[in-house]
Design brief:
Number of strands: 0
Radius of gyration: 32 Å
Shape: globular
Distance between the termini: 52 Å
Structural class: mainly alpha
Number of helices: 25
Strand content: under 5%
Largest sheet: none
Order of helices and strands: HHHHHHHHHHHHHHHHHHHHHHHHH
Amino acid sequence: MLNILQATCDLFRPFISRDKDRYIQLRLQLQRAGMKVLTDEYIVRAYICAILCGILAAFFIYEVSKGTVLLVFALLLTSNPFIYDIMPPYYWTLIETASSFVVISYITFTTCLLIPGVKAGIRIGVIDQSLSHTVAFLYALSHGGAITILDMFRSLSEHRDIYGAAAEEFTKIVNDIEYFGTDLLTALSNAIRRSPSAEMRDFLEGLSSVLSSGGNIGAYLGSKSKYFHDNAMKQQRMFFETLGVMAEVYISTFVAGPLFLMTILVVLGLINPTSTKILYAIVYLIIPISTVTYLLLLNSLTGQGAKRIEIYKLDKYLNEFDNVPLREDTENEQKKVKKIRFYEKINKISTRLLHPIKWMQANPAHTLLISIPIGIIYLHYNLDRHIDFINLTSIWDFNTATLASIDKQLFTAMLIVVIPYVIFYELWHMRITKIDEQIPDFLKNLASMNESGMLLTDAIAFATHLKIGILHTEVRRMHNELSWGATLSEALKKFEYRIRTEMTTKIVYIIIKATETTSNIMNVLTIAATDAEVQKQLKKERKSEMFVYVFIIYIAYGVFLFIVYILAAFFLPSMPVASASANAGMPLIQLVDLDEYNVLLFHAAMIQGLCSGLVAGKMERGEISAGLKYSLFMMFTAYLVFITFF
């Protein structure tokens, strides 16, 4: 398939290349979006996608509409009842099919051309978020007199997974110099042109001016580091305002909107029972799909970091002796190597079995390896006893008691799976929060002791006697490793590997790289402490601001649940009475299938609780996993409210 696509692109590329000036802006947007595709190839793909979508739309219209849309439109426009005689229906169908092909193809092609600009806009926020940490890293390295600006960029590019999208921009600069032979100023100029972030362009322009004039790079990086730290606070306040608007949009559109439609459809269902099909679509399709769309939109605003590389683990498995010639292994030695590898696997498994709590504390996702099989076993032994699947042949012709039993068992199984993960996730998050709160003070203490003339290794030893909370055990282990002969870099890498927080990784890497270039570590520790303090303040401010929005989502869901409860408990049960009292000759209200409506409203409350909780967690911490506890609380509340009906 890829070969066919590539051959098609090669066939039509010459026709696109004739009009390159028309797509200059698209080429720039592709570069700024980081999309690794040629401009003409992207245009050919857009044309192919547009044609395929147009064909599918035309086929759908031809099979389904049969010219009905144009006929109705023409009838409304002319008010002529003889509109059918003007042209046979077949020609109306052909016109409608051709029109749908043109319209859908044009919309698809235009959308494809807009995608690079949208992705470039998303990268702006991601780059700006990571720029303060990136500049702080460069500023720390600038205190080593023997390191050049290119070496700083190269060190940054080696760990772009740690420092994010801003470090990727410097990686492109290094690639221009090393692979294309470009000089530094030209590489900076190219980076200025292709970077989507105005803040990054301004920083690179200033850096280029300092380099070309022979100015003090350290002073410039220091002023920019302070500027970006202050600017991070302003950007976060703007982000809170945007998030506030997003919260209002979610409540009005994705909570109040479905509730309003559901109320109307419940009333209409008393007159026209076919309206319940729309109610099914709202509960089982519109609410989940709209929530997923909203979460993706939130993710584009907050950005999603790449998978973090653990620097200790990376160095641990380096093959440092690949070039050393080795003699061939004897058969006895090969057996010993196999035994060693076998015992390593056994030791790894036994450690997890003997210490499962520590294993799950290190990564909360490990709980799912245990809870999911338990949940499946629970469903296997309970569904077979309570459910007759013959009664579930149609969603519109089900056995209510059977479906209620399914709901109970599924909800119980979900609790079995999710509750352990939520517990260990919250414990893991509490640990990270405490560590991040202690890191700035720990670094300030090291900097003050180093300023008084104490070596960093001695300062770490002295820090074991300070009150540093949760860090005390890890600092003591780091001191023991240093006393046993480990180098400072090795001890710091192991320290980072044991703690494994985002802040610690960035700070430790700054200190390690700085110790390799300078013996005056005091300024570096001060820079690292300042950067850590800024991150700490940003997290505190976000936590306090997001509490309001989480509370608003709780209130909105409470209103949703209250209205749904009123409909199920008071409004619907009174309808059969009204039907019985109606005039037999003029039946105003149809008989109500109360069980069906109760199940639908119960599912609506449960699904809305799950979705609202996930959105609350995404807004609070930027992670969907943080919203599982809110989802469980909302769903459990809905379950307690509706349990009296089943």
